[in-house]
Specification:
Largest sheet: 2 strands, antiparallel
Shape: globular
Number of helices: 20
Distance between the termini: 21 Å
Number of strands: 2
Structural class: mainly alpha
Length: 487
């Protein structure tokens, strides 16, 4: 391990001191000379984070995780009319990584396969530009994928050891607690008029039948997609609450668990509720809970049930209607639209089986299929409301095969890493890996009911998942090295 000499430390402190002084002077000048002082403050904060990121890419990784999960950049753009911070920050992180490689003369191993996987799907996405009817929509999807794919690869490159993995896990929980607490407060107190600067958005939407009400959507702006992102954090928070040794971290994990669960409840998402059941089954199959953990879980469930609004209970009872045949589906207003959208996606795939209709071109074709089905009276463009059917309809067999290959690699890699960590006695990290895997399973289960409108969440999770085998390898090697040193 390389240690910093006293001389190097002094120059480091002097450098940061001078930088801080310059930033402070510039910020003070700009605050008094700009019409909107927020620009000066935001600029100063951005410079500080940029300096730290250049010198510590692992810190930059954690900032990126928080930024993506809270959608901070999007909120700043949409609600405060500030420039995007995500694009330049991602670019800065990439430059910092390459610069570090050039200086150290060493490129880490184990990320090329993941880059090929992401790149293969990117190639399918890019090919849509050759045949998509709505070229503008396809171009937007390609540009978004460029950023999202880079995020996934950056995660794999930088996320390599136990310390950074723990940092990512806790950063996810901090992000979830931040936005989840806002949602919990809104739902419990009925404070729907305050959007909390864009991090607590609320929509007045259909809940069940003809009943409408407030559905919380956090920084996302859509309750179903918000619930999908938040449910990923539930098993992670629960695992840390049950297994963490330090009392203050355990208390924070308990807070994170309640906040994320309540955020999902107040979103009124049926798909998320189904995904929670899938996560529970997956977790119990791989790691049956101890009696003490089961008792704590029952107590938590009893506590949570007290917060569940009656309209959400009524909404959940309609889930079984999908098994009641055409008449039952047509009787529920939201199911009619969903049925039309998913059937249209399947028919679209059958008509364009090899390459699909082009990324983000499903809405362009939807009405031509909807009119023949006669289920959906709406005349506007709609989405597939099923990620897998969306991929099939828009990218055909080429896309669904590559996407399936990616999902298989993610899940098999995480489960293999979990088993190896257990065998080598690294139970702490094995538990973290399994809880994260459970969250990913929940995300993918919820994707059965919604499309890929906010793909950055998926690619962030994919990057972490693809990095886990390298993390496990590093942990096992360090464990074996310590054993040899004591022998």
């Amino acid at each position: 391990m390389k240690h910093t000499s006293p001389r190097e430390s002094i120059w480091l402190y002097i450098g940061f001191g001078l930088a801080a002084a310059i930033i402070g002077i510039l910020s003070g000048f700009l605050i008094f000379n700009l019409e909107n002082p927020l620009f000066a403050i935001a600029g100063a904060i951005a410079i500080v984070f940029a300096l730290i990121t250049v010198t510590n890419t692992e810190f930059g990784l954690l900032v990126l995780v928080f930024m993506v999960y809270t959608r901070s950049s999007d909120v700043l753009v949409d609600f405060h009319h500030l420039p995007s911070v995500a694009k330049p920050y991602i670019a800065l992180l990439v430059v910092a990584i390459v610069t570090k490689w050039l200086i150290d003369g060493h490129v880490p191993e184990g990320w090329a396969h993941s880059a090929i996987l992401v790149g293969a799907y990117g190639l399918v996405v890019f090919s849509s530009l050759l045949y998509a009817t709505d070229f503008e929509a396809a171009t937007g999807a390609v540009l978004n994928f460029l950023k999202d794919g880079i995020i996934a690869i950056v995660m794999v490159i930088l996320l390599r050891d136990a310390k950074t993995f723990q940092g990512v896990i806790w950063t996810l929980l901090i992000a979830g607690t931040f936005i989840g607490t806002i949602s919990a407060y809104q739902g419990i107190t009925g404070t729907y008029s305050n959007d909390f600067s864009g991090f607590g958005q609320v929509g007045y939407q259909n809940i069940v039948g003809e009943t409408e009400g407030n559905r919380l959507s956090g920084p996302v702006g859509d309750p179903n997609f918000y619930a999908q992102a938040m449910l990923v954090l539930i098993p992670i928070a629960l695992e840390r609450f049950l297994k963490e040794k330090k009392w203050y971290l355990r208390a924070f994990a308990g807070w994170a668990f309640l906040a994320t669960v309540l955020a999902v409840i107040f979103s009124y998402s049926r798909g998320a509720a189904v995904a929670v059941v899938v996560m529970l089954i997956f977790s119990m199959l791989h790691s049956p809970p101890r009696l003490s953990d089961a008792m704590i879980g029952i107590l938590l469930i009893v506590l949570i049930i007290s917060f569940v609004p009656n309209p959400y209970v009524e909404r959940l009872t309609t889930i079984t209607d999908v098994f009641g045949g055409r008449n039952a589906v047509v009787g529920e207003v939201s199911y009619r639209g969903r049925a039309s959208e998913t059937i249209a996606a399947w028919l679209m795939f059958l008509d364009h089986p090899i390459f699909g209709v082009g990324v983000e071109n499903y809405p362009t074709y939807y009405q031509s299929y909807s009119r023949t089905l006669g289920l959906d009276p709406r005349l506007e463009q709609r989405q597939a409301h099923n990620l897998y059917l969306q991929v099939a309809a828009e990218t055909g067999l080429a896309g669904i095969l590559v996407f399936g290959w990616l999902l298989k690699t993610m899940m098999s890699g995480m489960l293999s890493a979990w088993r190896k960590l257990k065998i080598h006695g690294a139970t702490k990290y094995a538990d973290m890996v399994l809880s994260f895997s459970t969250g990913v399973v929940g995300y993918l289960a919820a994707a059965m009911f919604i499309h890929g409108a906010y793909p950055r969440y998926f690619w962030l999770l994919a990057g972490i998942a693809l990095a886990i085998p390298n993390i496990a390898k590093n942990i096992i090697e360090n464990t074996e090295a310590k054993i040899k040193s004591y022998a």
